[in-house]
Structure formats: structure tokens, C-alpha cells
Backbone:
């Protein structure tokens, strides 16, 4: 007989649900964005993002997907046009670089305690527990965690205040197959908006219901499929 696979409870995780905000969360009206004032990377941006949207940004590397994600995350300001957004909106922004910048000598508990300054130890532990870091896992050195575990810790850190919008830039680079499936399930159960930048076609097809093509110096709704 074939033995049943052992379920690893640390692989399932869930994102905290945000409080409700009225739509739209973000509206771009003929906006332009870039890194130097005289050279926008993207122009003529006319996009609207609502609280229940699941958007995947498609396009070749170097076309401006990350630039558009940073505009939504308010890390870049529009150079032209208008960007209106809800003043109460909280954003969780994940990049693969956050995984690499985690301090290997600290534990998940120390990382989260710093980020949730002023919160009770119980609240800190609860947020870690959502992502499979309970008991001994919470006090293990980050340097001894796998790439997938560090990615989960980074996701736990960026969602500590229950964001209304999750922006995930290549979130599956460090994840194995099981952790990718857990991320898909967590995203589909999450109550906020999602902006996904990923080359993982499987993840895009399972989580996104709107496609935006970043190409030719702008970004537009794409009516086709993957």
C-alpha cells in the first residue's frame, strides 16, 4: 500500500483580512512615472484598482512592471497626470530583495517584534503563527531557514498591519511547489486587492482575474488570456 503523504502544517498560511474601504482604492488618470524627471518609463496610465481586484502585470523584463508596482505602492510619485488613492489604504509590498535582506542572526520572533513595536507578544506570535512560525520555528535563526521559509517570513512581515492591497513582485522565486500552492490558496482567501508580477503562469491563471499588459511605454488592460 502507498503511504499517505504527511501534511506539513507549517506550509499553510493565511493573510489577515483588512477593514473595508470604499472603491476605488487607486485611480490613475493620464499618469506618467519613472526615476528621472525628464525620462518617464511609463506614460498615459489610465487604470482603476478596486478592493476586490486581482491583477497580474504582464510584459517582458525591463518594460516597467516593477516601476508600475512601485507607483501603486506609493514608492514613486507620478511625474504627470493624476493619481488618486484612499487616504486610509495600507499596502503590503513584497519583493525578492526583502528575502535576501533578512538578518540571518535574528529569529522570526525578533524580526516581527521589531516591526510590530508596541503590540503585545500575543499579537506578534499570532501573526507569526499565521505563516507557520509557531513554537520552535519562531525562535530559530533566520540563517538556518530554507529559502521558502524566509520568503514566508517576509510575507508575514509585510502583512502585519492587514493591508488593503498586496503587491507581490516575483513572490514564488524562493518557494517550492507546495509553498506555491499554499500561496495561491492564501491569495484566493484574502479579502483585499492583489497586484501580481510573476513569470509563474500557473499562479497567474489561478489567482488573477484582470490582466494588464506593460508594453511600449504604457500599461493597458489586456482582454486576451495568458
Residues:
Amino acid at each position: 500500500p502507498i503511504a499517505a503523504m504527511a501534511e506539513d502544517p507549517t506550509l499553510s498560511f493565511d493573510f489577515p483580512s483588512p477593514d473595508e474601504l470604499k472603491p476605488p482604492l487607486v485611480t490613475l488618470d493620464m499618469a506618467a512615472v519613472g526615476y528621472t524627471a525628464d525620462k518617464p518609463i511609463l506614460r498615459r496610465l489610465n487604470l482603476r484598482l478596486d478592493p476586490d481586484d486581482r491583477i497580474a502585470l504582464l510584459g517582458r523584463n525591463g518594460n516597467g512592471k516593477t516601476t508600475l508596482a512601485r507607483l501603486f505602492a506609493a514608492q514613486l510619485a507620478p511625474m504627470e497626470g493624476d493619481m488618486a488613492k484612499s487616504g486610509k489604504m495600507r499596502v503590503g509590498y513584497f519583493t525578492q530583495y526583502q528575502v535576501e535582506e533578512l538578518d540571518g542572526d535574528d529569529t522570526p520572533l525578533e524580526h516581527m517584534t521589531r516591526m510590530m513595536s508596541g503590540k503585545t507578544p500575543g499579537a506578534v506570535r499570532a501573526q507569526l503563527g499565521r505563516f507557520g512560525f509557531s513554537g520552535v520555528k519562531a525562535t530559530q535563526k533566520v540563517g538556518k531557514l530554507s529559502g521558502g521559509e524566509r520568503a514566508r517570513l517576509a510575507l508575514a512581515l509585510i502583512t502585519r498591519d492587514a493591508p488593503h492591497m498586496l503587491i507581490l513582485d516575483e513572490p514564488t522565486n524562493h518557494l517550492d511547489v507546495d509553498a506555491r500552492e499554499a500561496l495561491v490558496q492564501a491569495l484566493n482567501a484574502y479579502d483585499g486587492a492583489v497586484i501580481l508580477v510573476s513569470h509563474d503562469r500557473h499562479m497567474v491563471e489561478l489567482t488573477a482575474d484582470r490582466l494588464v499588459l506593460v508594453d511600449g511605454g504604457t500599461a493597458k488592460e489586456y482582454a486576451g488570456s495568458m
User: Anything to note?
Assistant: Residues 156 and 197 are 19 Å apart (CA to CA).
